[in-house]
Design a protein that fits this description.
Elements (H helix, E strand, L loop, with lengths): L2 H21 L8 H12 L5 H7 L4 H4 L3 E2 L7 E2 L17 H35 L11 H7 L8 E3 L5 E3 L2 H17 L13 H10 L6 H11 L8 H31 L5 E5 L9 E7 L2 H11 L2 H9 L5 E6 H11 L3 E3 L4 H6 L5 E4 L8 H5 L5 E4 L11 E3 L7 H15 L14 E5 L3 H7 L9 H8 L5 E5 L11 H12 L2 E5 L1 H9 L7 H5 L2 H10 L4 E3 L6 H14 L11 E5 L5 H12 L3 E4 L9 H15 L3 E3 L3 H18 L13 H9 L1
Parallel strand pairs: 6-7, 6-9, 7-8, 9-10, 10-11, 13-14, 13-16, 14-15, 16-17, 17-18
Antiparallel strand pairs: 1-2, 3-4, 5-12
Bound molecules: Broken Fe4S4 cluster (MSK).
Length: 680
């Protein structure tokens, strides 16, 4: 055999070895339940995202951010090389312009997704306030009274004798609902909740002229500016991206969180289970998947209805199990303690168990392929939102309407029960089922890390100042099939805990933590440095605090604001020893979230990739230039160990700036100090 042929044979051997290694489920996920279901899917002849990720490569030019397809003269693919150091598109657009436009469009899509979710919540809230529906009501009246002034709504009224009386709750709710809905279509002025930010931050946004006007307006303006031949200045495009992203974090998402809390209850710590082992072989299994809690709240009620449970028994099932997937899961978990079947990359695999009678989807993060997977089993896919229909496979559409939501929910549960007897594939449910403690809204943290009788963030600040807690990290975001499922979340978070950094989490990251046992108080002595372990053990909290779903990243903004207001750690979010990360991000919403954290003053690191590599000047602006403007900036680090190192270095930099580089006890503030702070 010639040397050349030998080399070819060796190359083939090596590539088949590499393919085999790539196809090994242990290289795809660190979660044993996921690995087991990938194997079952293959045995059943079912293709999943894990297989496609191994066989289909991402487009390198799109991944670098410099593919422009905003007009029909392209797509123009710009690659900087030695031969062509200054490539431009047909119209002359530079890599910077193209990458900034693409980035801005991702912000717009992400902000739109969160905010349209928020709009739906506001509409249902208003219907509840006007008593146009009997299925929804006002549950958390304390929170309603607390937030009403932020919308300029009075909570008291004076009678003719001058006595101050509490206003009727439904009257307040209606006014709040009207004001909240008005935030979408406002043409001028400012979003009302921008003033919730620390004063210094709000003033900075004003100075930089980025306080959002109305939510819809900022998104529409991005679409206009990124149309062919409009905004050709990457800095100006990012300025508009900042308005839209802030309109997401401090309006669309924040309003969604607030109004959901008022209608369904503000989360407080509760226990729940997580992973595919939450499904039950002898019960009707229903999975609610997506993001909006409006319908899933009603499915909770319908699935617990004794009549419905009896009906399930007539079909041979022992009962009904309702579990969640993606952020709808976080919503029903944090308010009802109902289990989570899995995070984003497990949606197909839940169906592969052969035990899911119905997967009920609303909006966002729903893979089109679940319809194909479902067709290999008996699972019914039920779409419920007119914005999110599916053309592939056989799906049922039962449209959610807030005016008869419970009726819709009962119809869906009955459909699932009727499907129980149609199981046709082998049922195999992994045994993995972890316990977790969730529901750390910023109000709950107020009490758990704060005062016993009166909520306060002061004790948390004290522990940061004395160095027991080195800093705070927000670790959030998705799974990504281009990385090992859950791995980067867990490596990063464990590194942070070891270094006494307390972690706030949401979304699929929170679920990765839950599956790995990090969301229990018992995790503190196992994973934390001595300082953080001591704090967690003293107050009985997990070292990683589950704060909810993707829209609930707004809770992290509020928690950061409360820390600033409690004093002793600077005057702005950018002064805090804090950092953010999304190590396995994949959705456009993550880019919007990342950008509202950056513009709120947070050093924010993403993993996997960022579509900026093909435009070095633009990348430099995001990674360095924004720090001068906002005190927060973007970063990209693939390796989670290195990501942890950089986040801790940033936290230490902020500690040093605050004079906290040597641990010290906090000097207790007296009333005069507090008044000075308030006046500042
Ligand atoms: S669900 S946006 S995959 S976190 Fe909110 Fe998970 Fe990311 Fe969807």
């Amino acid at each position: 055999m010639s040397e050349e042929s030998k080399a070819k044979v060796e190359a083939v051997k090596a590539s088949s070895k590499a393919e085999k290694a790539a196809a090994d489920p242990r290289t795809m996920s660190v979660d044993p339940a996921t690995q087991q279901m990938i194997i079952k899917a293959r045995a059943d002849g079912v293709e999943t995202i894990f297989d496609r990720a191994a066989s289909m490569k991402a487009c390198p030019i799109g991944a670098s951010g410099t593919c422009c397809k905003n007009c029909s003269q392209g797509p123009c693919r710009l690659t900087i090389s030695a031969k062509n150091p200054n490539p431009i598109g047909l119209c002359g657009a530079t890599p910077e312009t193209v990458a900034a436009r693409n980035f801005a469009r991702m912000v717009a899509a992400g902000a739109a997704a969160h905010s349209d979710h928020g709009r739906g919540v506001a509409e249902t809230f208003l219907a509840a306030a006007r008593r146009e529906t009997s299925d929804y009501g006002i549950k958390d009246t304390v929170k309603l009274r607390e937030i009403a002034p932020d919308f300029g709504v009075e909570i008291t009224v004076q009678d003719e004798e001058g006595n101050v009386l509490d206003r009727d709750i439904y009257e307040i709710a209606e006014e709040v609902g009207v004001k909240a809905l008005g935030e979408w279509g406002k043409q001028n002025g400012e979003i009302l909740l921008a003033k919730r930010a620390p004063k210094e931050r709000y003033e900075l946004w004003k100075k930089l002229d980025v306080v959002p006007r109305g939510i819809d307006r900022e998104v529409v303006e991005i679409m206009h500016r990124t149309h062919m031949g409009v905004d050709q200045d990457y800095k100006n495009l990012i300025k508009q991206s900042s308005r839209a992203a802030l309109g997401d974090g401090w309006a669309g998402s924040m309003i969604a969180t607030d109004l959901q809390d008022i209608m369904f209850g503000t989360p407080y710590p509760t226990r729940g289970g997580i992973n595919l082992g939450c499904l039950n072989a002898d019960e009707v299994n229903i999975i609610v998947h997506g993001h909006e809690p409006l319908l899933s709240e009603m499915i909770v009620v319908a699935s617990q209805d004794p009549e419905m449970i009896e009906y399930a028994k007539t079909k041979g099932a022992k009962g009904i199990t309702l579990a969640g997937m993606c952020c709808t899961a976080n919503e029903i978990l944090q308010r009802h303690g109902l289990p989570i079947a899995g995070n984003y990359l497990q949606q197909e695999l839940a169906i592969v168990t052969g035990a899911v009678e119905a997967m009920v989807v609303d909006v966002q993060c729903i893979m089109e392929n679940i319809a194909n997977v479902a067709s290999c089993y008996h699972t019914k896919i039920v779409t419920t939102n007119p914005r999110a229909m599916m053309a592939s496979g056989e799906t049922e559409h039962i449209e959610f309407d807030e005016h008869h939501a419970l009726e819709d929910a009962k119809r869906i549960v009955r459909l699932a029960v009727d499907n129980f007897q149609n199981r046709r594939a082998e049922v195999m449910i992994p045994s993995q089922r972890e316990n977790q403690v969730v529901g750390f809204s910023y109000e709950a943290i107020n009490y758990h890390l704060g005062g016993t009788f009166r909520g306060s963030y002061v004790p948390l600040n004290d522990n940061i100042i004395n160095g027991r807690i080195r800093g705070i990290a927000g670790v959030v975001g998705c799974n990504n099939a281009r990385t090992v499922h859950d791995s980067s979340h867990l490596i990063l978070i464990k590194e942070l805990l070891k270094n006494d950094v307390i972690v706030l989490t949401t979304g699929c990251s929170a679920m990765a933590c839950g599956k790995a046992g990090l969301l229990t108080p018992e995790a503190a002595p196992v994973y934390c440095g001595s300082g953080l372990a001591e704090v967690c053990e003293t107050v009985g909290i997990p070292p990683v605090l589950h704060m909810g779903s993707c829209v609930d990243n707004s809770r992290i903004l509020m928690a950061a604001t409360e820390v600033v207001k409690a004093g002793g750690l600077g005057k702005d979010i950018s002064d805090l020893p804090a950092a953010g990360a999304a190590p396995e991000w994949m959705s456009e919403k993550a880019i919007s979230i990342g950008h509202y954290f950056v513009t709120s003053g947070v050093y924010t690191v993403f993993g996997v990739t960022l579509p900026v590599e093909g435009a070095p000047v633009f990348k430099d602006y995001l990674f360095k230039g924004l720090e001068d403007l906002y005190g927060g900036m973007w970063d990209l680090v693939e390796d989670p160990h290195e990501m942890a190192r950089k986040m801790i270095a940033h936290i230490d930099k902020k500690r040093a700036a605050l004079g906290l580089d040597k641990g010290k006890e906090r000097v207790l503030m007296d009333m005069a100090d507090r008044q000075k702070l308030d006046a500042a």
